[in-house]
C-alpha cells in the first residue's frame, strides 16, 4: 500500500506540470485511453458520475464532454490538483479522501478512477467506498497501469519505467523522485486477473478487463448488484 502524505505532497508539487508530463511520457496515448473510458460511459446515459482521484480532471473532462446531460463530479484529496481541474473546465469538484467519501449510499450511476486507486493507502477500503456510493446496478470503471504479459515486452517496459521515465519526468517537473516512486507502485499493484479478484472480493460482479496498448494499461469494469 502507498504513503498518502507522500502522494499528496508529490502531486501538489507537480500539479501545474502534471498534464504535460503525462502526455509526454505516454507519447499522448493516455489521451486515447481516457477517451475510451468516456466512450464506455456515454451509452449508459448516467444521471451522475463520480470520478475519484480526479487529479487535474483529465478523465472527468472527457466524460463531461461525452455526457453533456450528466452531472460529473471530480473528487481528490489534493487541492492544488483540483484547482487545475477547475481551471481546465471541470464544472464541479469536491475535496475528499477516497477512503472517506462525503456522499450518501447508492448515489452515483457510474464511479470512475483513472490512475488513482494504485496510489491509495488501502485498495480494498477504497473499493468498499466506491461500492457504497454506487447505486444498485451502478457501474465501476478503473483505468490504471499494468505490466505486459510477454517476457521481452515486460523487460523493455520495465527499463522505460525505471530508467527513462524518471529521467524525462525529472527534467520537466524537477521532481524525479515522484516518478521513481511511480515505477514502484506499478510493480506492486495487482493487474489482470488479480485485479479482477480484488474488485470482486469487495462486492462487485460481472468484472471485465480490457488491456490497452499491449497491456501497459488496463480498463476494468464491474457492476454493483
Amino acid at each position: 500500500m502507498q504513503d498518502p502524505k507522500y502522494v499528496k505532497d508529490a502531486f501538489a508539487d507537480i500539479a501545474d506540470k502534471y498534464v504535460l508530463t503525462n502526455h509526454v511520457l505516454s507519447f499522448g496515448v493516455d489521451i486515447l485511453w481516457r477517451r475510451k473510458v468516456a466512450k464506455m460511459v456515454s451509452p449508459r446515459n448516467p444521471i451522475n458520475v463520480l470520478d475519484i482521484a480526479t487529479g487535474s480532471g483529465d478523465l472527468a473532462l472527457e466524460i463531461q464532454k461525452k455526457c453533456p446531460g450528466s452531472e460529473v463530479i471530480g473528487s481528490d484529496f489534493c487541492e492544488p490538483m483540483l484547482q487545475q481541474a477547475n481551471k481546465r473546465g471541470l464544472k464541479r469538484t469536491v475535496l475528499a479522501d477516497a477512503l472517506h467519501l462525503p456522499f450518501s449510499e447508492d448515489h452515483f450511476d457510474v464511479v470512475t478512477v483513472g490512475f488513482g486507486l494504485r496510489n491509495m493507502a488501502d485498495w480494498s477500503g477504497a473499493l468498499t467506498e466506491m461500492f457504497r456510493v454506487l447505486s444498485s446496478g451502478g457501474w465501476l470503471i478503473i483505468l490504471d497501469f499494468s505490466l505486459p504479459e510477454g517476457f521481452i515486452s515486460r523487460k523493455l517496459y520495465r527499463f522505460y519505467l525505471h530508467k527513462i521515465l524518471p529521467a524525462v519526468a525529472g527534467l520537466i517537473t524537477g521532481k524525479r523522485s515522484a516518478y521513481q516512486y511511480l515505477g514502484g507502485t506499478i510493480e506492486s499493484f495487482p493487474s489482470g486477473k488479480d485485479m479482477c479478484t480484488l474488485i470482486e472480493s469487495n462486492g462487485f460482479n460481472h468484472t471485465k478487463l480490457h488491456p490497452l496498448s499491449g497491456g501497459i494499461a488496463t480498463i476494468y469494469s464491474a457492476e454493483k448488484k
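The domain at 4-223 is CATH 3.40.50.150 (Rossmann fold). The two ends are 28 Å apart (CA to CA).
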